Amino acid sequence: xxxxxxxxxxxxxxxxxxxxxxxxxxxxxxxxxxxxxxxxxxxxxxxxxxxxxxxxxxxxxxxxxxxxxxxxxxxxxxxxxxxxxxxxxxxxxxxxxxxxxxxxxxxxxxxxxxxxxxxxxxxxxxxxxxxxxxxxxxxxxxxxxxxxxx
Length: 150
Hints:
By secondary structure, the protein is an all-alpha fold. Helix content is 57%, strand content 0%. It has helices at residues 14-23, 27-33, 42-52, 57-64, 68-76, 84-93, 98-107, 118-128, 133-142. The longest helix is centred in the first third of the chain and has 11 residues, at 42-52. The chain is globular. It starts with 13 loop residues before the first helix and ends in an 8-residue tail after the last helix.
């Protein structure tokens, strides 16, 4: 199940945005005119997820296996450019399904999971099996892959 807030509220198609961007010489004007087309910051998206899934931040932080201080900075929006593995750990701790996880990665400005990548395939399988972070790391270890959190 994907919640409405997860999908960006778009008025223009991506093709329309590309066309406008290519034709517009005034990038500032383009950005100002299209503010409603851009995604919210990661921390805002995480906060929305917590509310919609009725989760407590402290529980997600604990379950993620991340350094507590780092995780709270991520939720507060004071941590720039988190690694893909750390964002995935947060998503796994939240119990996200694959579609929700892909959106989380997009909001974090990271590559979505790709089934042609072996490591990503293991993560996809772990998500589908609803494994927690420790179980996901165990599966990765069993298959000779690098861990989600090392």
